[in-house]
């Protein structure tokens, strides 16, 4: 018998032959004589007659849920033989489970194809040599047998989690920011869980209605951190925890009594675990949609670069099946079930803040050290809020299939149900329409340096009714404002980060770079060192700022104005053009008498004379235009866009 | 096609700026070192700002990788500017800094200064430090790789090149996309 594979999870490489295994067992029978050994391998076991049969020949199906604890107990098996594990994508899980089944002093005989024993995409270290394993395993021998490698190990000390494995208490660490009313509800529900011992620690402001209970306390950062220092908060929670079993989570969950059973039934031998997450888009737990919970980085090349820079391509991050696994799978940062020992051994990187891929980096660092990130399907946890970027689509990876990017996750039947009973749907935006519009407008108008006529007009609020029309109006308005300097474009992206979603810095920089290039491609003033204006009347005063770049001076034929300053620009006479290099300068005409002025300018040596209307930097900001499309799609699937839309629907 | 300029060590032009840290601010410098990215500051900055930057670079909590803090003498307006790195208590001449606007006019002698370090540094600004709507007729059509190729050909064999970028985190992403 052997481990049971699945067509969904094919082995990626050969495994040692049954004959090779047979020979190894026979050669090492002295270690396997008392029958207390366990076999765990993909090569079918044909036990030699001179070897006592194993106490257990593991014939479980292998997927992300694989566990050895129920059958073998914790660190109680005297000898283990493994064979061909590296051919499986679940190898990190298999090795983890075997390590914790093996007793201190126990012997581990591992046989595998030699070519598989030189590490993976994540690290050049073989599994049994990774940090977590190296802490309790010592290699006794290594030999190459034809195309196979045979290693023998002794477990010389308990595994790192062993010391705390009998602690049945739970520390729930809840990250708060601002009022966090839901955190108080969560704490109340947690205290009511049927668990042997429980404590709740808030890291952040203590919620106003938090339970007054000795099991509840609050800690916080020394200073407020607007970036969202979630790594530090989680590390502080782990450091402050009284219990070995940690559940570190953000303040948007609905805690229900079945959490207790799910947490305890998973057993005590675990590394990092999360649960499937769901957001219910309708009342009565209707219209479930997946929330980022367990993800996989499908990138295979340049991983080292990614891990050193902590920058990842979001198109390489997908939601896998829950029973799938990869060395590059990780628990999303919203909820971790973890051992305090492990967290203290490997704290999160405090140089990373919210929306800086801290969970991706953490997962990979753990996996690189031999500590897998997994998911338990004993429970589905509910997020009280939706993910703003996953209202309709998400990136999905189904085992055996190509990645499905931006796949619609709302089926036709569900859509029909939503449209048939709109009063049952929660709003896409959890605030009243007017309140939302006002909030967005106020944030836009807070962009530094906006001139009065560049601000969003209040009329926008009155003309809009939905999301797409509102954002379309904003996009059109932005196209009339000269967002051309890097600083200005950056502030526009910050506005989007504050009102739509907190985008990563690489994404923001990409937008800035793309828009700068678009501006340059359109800009008739590109390549000019010096730009001067001609005309100081009303046309100049209303339009010169729209160039998006400063004027060296402005020309007026009225000698009385020479030497004065209009709108911060010095006025000079036409002859000033003679001092300029015509190849690297331009004259922008702020007047309806363009032809006449052009002749005059060229008489002074100018070669590039442009009408102001052609020079102003009006250009759509593509990311905003894209979001108009995004919101238009949201409107198709969410019959209620705003909180007051729901109330009207119910009425 | 792989771009050689993307393989060079990166130095942040104005720190790692973002929504919470203005370009060239101390916060942006700190963020850079915490993310293991070296920075270049200008000699024209105020003494207090430079002192803060030195303190950040000297602090092992902020600068785990012990990356250097570099300073360019931006009073120099022709050719390559002198480049310094901060030692324990003072600045050591370590190489040259090539502003992208002057890259076309660099001569061989510019890239071979007398330095205190074993191998001279040559920091080359990326085109991305120039905001596109500004003038760069001199550089019209030039790319980082083209500029780099010319400079590397002129520099001594021992020179160590690094690229000064205003879009460091995007460069990281571009590198990975190229590697993939």
Write the layout of secondary structure elements.
The complex is a heterodimer of chains A (651) and B (180).
Chain A: H1 18-27, E1 37-41, E2 56-57, H2 69-72, E3 77-83, H3 91-101, E4 102-113, H4 131-134, E5 137-145, E6 148-155, E7 169-175, H5 181-191, E8 197-203, E9 216-219, H6 230-240, E10 245-250, E11 253-254, H7 258-265, E12 272-274, E13 277-282, E14 286-290, E15 294-297, H8 303-309, E16 317-320, E17 329-331, E18 335-339, H9 340-345, H10 358-368, E19 373-375, E20 381-383, E21 393-397, E22 404-408, H11 412-420, H12 433-445, H13 459-463, H14 468-479, H15 486-499, H16 505-522, E23 530-534, H17 538-543, E24 554-555, E25 565-566, E26 569-572, E27 585-589, H18 594-603, E28 609-611, H19 612-615, H20 622-637, H21 643-650
Parallel strand pairs in A: 1-2, 1-3, 3-4, 7-8, 7-10, 8-9, 12-19, 13-20, 16-21, 23-24, 23-27, 24-26, 27-28
Antiparallel strand pairs in A: 4-6, 5-6, 10-18, 11-20, 12-18, 13-14, 15-16, 15-17, 21-22, 25-26
Helix pairs in contact in A: 12-15, 14-20, 15-16
Chain B: H1 4-7, E1 10-12, H2 26-34, E2 38-42, H3 47-58, E3 69-72, E4 81-86, E5 91-98, E6 121-125, H4 144-154, E7 160-165, H5 168-179
Parallel strand pairs in B: 1-2, 1-7, 2-3, 5-6, 6-7
Antiparallel strand pairs in B: 3-4, 4-5
